[in-house]
Amino acid sequence: MAFIPQGNSTPGPSKIPGANRLLTKVEMRLSCKSLMDKDLGSKSDPLVVVELYDHMYKKWNEVGRTERIKNNLNPTFTEGIIVEYHFEEVQKIKFMVYDLDNDTKDLRDDDFLGQMECTVGQLVSGKKVTKPLVLKNGKAAKKGTITVDTEEVAENHDVLVLSFRATKLDKKDVMGKSDPFLEFYKQGVTEEDWHKVHQTEVIKNTLNPVWKPAEISVRSLCNGDYDKKLKIQVFDYDFDGGHDVIGEFYTTARELIFNSKSQIEWVCINPKKKAKKKNYKNSGQVFLTKCEVKRHYTFLDYILGGCQINFTVGIDFTGSNGDPIEPTSLHFISDSTPNEYTQAIVSVGEVIQDYDSDKLFPALGFGAKIPPNNEISHEFAINFNATNPFCSGVTGVVAAYQACLRQITLWGPTNVAPIIDHVAKFATEALNQNKASQYFILLLLTDGVLTDMYETRDAIVKASHLPMSVIIVGVGQADFTDMRMLDGDDGKLRSPNGEAAARDIVQFVPFRDFKGPAEQFANPADLARCVLAELPQQVEEYFKMKGLHPPVLHR
């Protein structure tokens, strides 16, 4: 059973209600080694200032600072730094170490001992990261290092699985019995303020219903306060929405959990009947037959627990992109302005690469005639090494892409199902390991409507059962209306034979939606944020669907 705090507890930070994007907080614990000694007659009195880079205003903003530790060149700071963590963004973070000589906040008259710059993603995926400190001129701050230990700020991720039944409920229907269901409410600020948090299914025509187990997060049920008053009402369902109250009772999450191993009973009271009838006893009995406490694992739980994110790029080399030697081509390589394909690869890849330990990314192409036989291929390594299609980092993908353009002939048609199936093969191998150790992301870049839409729908529906997601970025000015059907935001995607996707794994966006006023560059942070916003939820949903825990529980 999960730990239940004694007495009242306050709810921790939570996700923005109704938002799909990951919004959580991480705490960073800092320590340094071998700092430079700037004090005469004593040692340095170090303090660390932490700043995050604001991409919109192009400036660094302070988000926190540690306490000062006197006379110590190897300090371990007690004051942790808490920052909001967004998976879908490249969050640049900088740690600056000062020898504090006075009690003022202004650091301009304090000695600078070195700094370290990286991304929040690198710290989250690395868990405990040690890097050398450098001076503002880029030279090493002697042997000084800083260690950042990162973990998610503790929240309550427990889920209660509640099984209820009832007996001898009041008969409400003239032509039958009752059609009972339960509604759960948590108390608000005042005693009269109640907020609905859950409703069970309706059990038709019975006075002795047995409801299916209900899964309710502790955060939803009581905001993490196990002593918050809960009201459970029993209704008789009416088709017109005018449901009749059968009765109600009160409890708390603590009572539900502490009685999980023994059946507990409540009498169901109808307040109006009780007020009118002197001999009124009750309107039935409700029983909690089982209460199971389950842990809801977050995206960070899986990442910090050792899950690797595997990134693959698929690039459209069909003739509709235009001749690469012409400036009007979507594949035109300019010394001054990266084309839309390059911008999309860099924007998304720079976020993903922080979560891949070896930073070796397969990069594939489709829709071109390739050497040595000038044959059309819809699945080829853009480095032309079929046994080793990996590129080193995002810069390696861009370099291979640009080199590939000089060796192929753009052709067609626009078939992407082969590349989806290619990644699905590796995701299937990960599935067969029955561990939450790998998740695959395919970034597809294409300039037009897919020729193999039927095959693509079928491939995506099959992939929805695997640890993988597909991001599609539409490049150029084509009409992408048909592409939006692949994104399950407007309803479940179905294969041509009618099979529904197990979950939504596709995110589609047109690149042009992120163009700046100059109509040349997209806002890379906004593009990455949009296409990656749903990914943490997709990872959580998949491993929950498979009942897989993180490989290592980091807390």
Task: Set out the fold topology.
Elements: E1 24-33, E2 46-54, E3 59-65, E4 81-85, E5 92-99, E6 111-119, H1 120-126, E7 128-134, E8 140-152, E9 158-167, E10 180-187, E11 194-199, E12 214-217, H2 218-222, E13 230-236, E14 244-251, H3 253-258, E15 264-267, H4 271-276, E16 285-295, H5 299-304, E17 308-316, H6 340-352, E18 360-366, E19 368-370, E20 375-377, E21 380-381, E22 390-392, H7 393-405, E23 409-410, H8 417-432, E24 438-446, H9 453-463, E25 468-474, E26 506-510, H10 524-532, H11 535-545
Parallel strand pairs: 17-18, 17-24, 24-25, 25-26
Antiparallel strand pairs: 1-4, 1-8, 2-3, 2-5, 5-6, 7-8, 9-12, 9-16, 10-11, 10-13, 13-14, 15-16, 18-21, 18-22, 19-20, 19-23
Question: Would you mind describing this structure in some detail?
Answer:
By secondary structure, the protein is an alpha+beta fold. 19% of the residues lie in helices and 32% in strands. The protein has helices at 120-126, 218-222, 253-258, 271-276, 299-304, 340-352, 393-405, 417-432, 453-463, 524-532, 535-545, and strands spanning 24-33, 46-54, 59-65, 81-85, 92-99, 111-119, 128-134, 140-152, 158-167, 180-187, 194-199, 214-217, 230-236, 244-251, 264-267, 285-295, 308-316, 360-366, 368-370, 375-377, 380-381, 390-392, 409-410, 438-446, 468-474, 506-510. Strands 17, 18, 21, 22, 24, 25 and 26 form a 7-stranded mixed beta sheet that branches. A 4-stranded antiparallel beta sheet has the order 4-1-8-7. It is flat. Mean pLDDT is 89; it is low at 1-21.
